[in-house]
Amino acid sequence: MFVQLAYGKDGMEVELPDHAVIVEPKYVRGVTDEKQALRASLQAPIGTVRLAEMVKPDSKVVIVVSDITRPAPSDRILPVLLEQLETVKQENIRIVNALGLHRPNTREEFVHMLGQEIVDAFGDRIINHNANDKAELVYLGESSRGTPMWINRTYMEADIKIVTGFIEPHFFAGFSGGRKSVFPGIAGADTITKNHNAVHIDHQLACYGSLEGNPIHEDMLEIARKTNPSFMINVALNNDHEITGVWSGDIELAHAAGVAFVKETAMQKLPHHFDIVITTNSGYPLDINLYQSVKGMAAAQLILKPKGTMIVVAECSEGVGDAFFEVLKSRSSGKALLEMIRTPGWSAPDQWTAQVLARMLVAHELYLYSDHLCEEDIRRCHFSPVKNIELLVQDILRRNPLATIAVIPHGPMTIPYVESRVGNL
Questions:
Q1: What is the largest CA-CA distance in the chain?
Q2: Of the listed 102, 129, 255, 273, which one is catalytic?
Q3: DSSP code of 131?
Q4: pLDDT per residue over 190-248, tens digit each?
Q5: For residue range 139-164, what is the model confidence (pLDDT) as tens digits?
């Protein structure tokens, strides 16, 4: 049978044995009228008054948006959101790009993310967050877990703080959206590194679908609350990136309502683990680099047998990810990486994703298909390069004719599981 995999912008088709099991989220049709769905949510927010009732003509307003590595439909959300701010002087509204520790986005990327009209209208009032410049951050003390709270200054100085985004499963924060726009989106490097430390990443509840008892999520939520966000609007998306649901209002209550919806669509129970799992990172922009693509791998691991084979299909048009690559190539194996990362006092940017990957390297055999990474770099990241997925599968089946196969065409858009529960799902 032929299977269409999400890969880069165009996807790719592979031919696989007929007994392969396809694992996809439950398909939900996009709403009939996206603008009307957005307006309806904004008119009936959860846990807050309407945004239009919060603002005054002289209010200083900040809107936080997701960066280029997220498929958040900001170009569809913002025009409707700005209707609620029509009484505010436009020069008082700023847009902050929630980069976390990612690279700054270009004007061309802003046009792709936000639309030409908004980029032209806001110009230099669209700001790339800088997690490493403390002059652009405000210190709020420490969280109850001892995390130093550094948050974007432009955001903190606003009267009205609005966060936007979309909700999907997340491999160690449980779900994206909500508080993640604030932290790690516009947090300082020290804040992010402390929250994403090795002990937290190794916690059994720091996984897909888990919020209650997840130390990473709970620290994020506490810190986001400390910043007094005014309003949130989040959406859910289907595989076609159509909006399937909208939630507005309080950053915790509205997010919880969205999470409940996404749980029902993303969760897929399977009868057993598999010998081979083929996964993606849901195509562009999620598979823009190998660092982001670990999310799809973490989803695949949930149904992969110990010592099983994972085949990762990720375009990686921007490479590995600089800081991530530095960590990976500093050691010769997954075991050595784990030993280094778990050493008390050791830390480095992107160590958290390296830690998740290293655990998989110890437990499984990992292959990577990428048109943009050379074989040498793939091997330095501890994967075996593969040029032909069909031939690799055939070779494995020659050695083990009874090998079972699962395919996750949209990677982290699906949470597959075998046991009765994954995290709190």
A1: 71
A2: 102
A3: T
A4: 999 999 999 999 999 999 999 999 999 999 999 999 999 999 999 999 988 999 999 99
A5: 999 999 999 999 999 999 999 999 99
Cα 216 to Cα 176: distance, rounded to the nearest angstrom? 12
The C-alpha atoms of residue 156 and residue 170 are separated, in whole angstroms, by 26
Burial class from Cβ neighbours inside 10 Å (0-12, 13-18, 19+) for residue 85 reads buried
Q: How far apart are CA 24 and CA 48, in angstroms?
A: 35
pLDDT tens-digit readout, 304-315:
999 999 999 999
User: In the beta sheet, which residues pair with residue 416?
Assistant: 268
The string of DSSP codes covering 93-115 is EEEEEE-TTSPPPPHHHHHHHH-
Backbone angles phi and psi of 46, in degrees to 5: -95, 115
Q: Quote the distance between the C-alpha of residue 253 and its chain's center.
A: 20
Angle value at C-alpha 179, between 42 and 356, nearest 5 degrees: 135
Helices (H) and strands (E) in the chain, counts: 16, 20
In this structure, what DSSP letter does residue 82 have?
H
C-alpha–C-alpha distance, residues 198 and 347, integer Å? 9
* Distance, CA of 17 to chain centre: 31
3-state helix, strand, coil in the chain (%, to 5): 35, 25, 40
pTM: 0.90
Catalytic residue status for 170: yes
Report the C-alpha gap between 74 and 92 in whole angstroms: 20
pLDDT above 90 (res 420): no
- The verdict on whether 129 is a catalytic residue reads no
Cα angle: 82, vertex 88, 91; to 5 degrees: 90
What is the structure's pLDDT at 425? 43
List the structure tokens of 424: 């709190």
pLDDT exceeds cutoff 50 at 382: yes
Please tell me the distance from the alpha carbon of residue 64 to that of residue 95, in angstroms, as a whole number: 6
DSSP string, 217-241: HHHHHHHHHHT---EEEEEEE-TT-
Q: What is the DSSP letter of 21?
A: E
Q: Which of 108, 98, 46, 112 lies closest to 220, judged by CA?
A: 98
Measuring CA to CA, which residue among 61, 72, 138 is closest to residue 94? 61
- Please tell me which residue in 19, 112, 129, 170 is annotated as part of the active site: 170
Helix (H, G, I), strand (E, B) or coil at 173: coil
CA 22 – CA 4 distance, rounded (Å) = 10
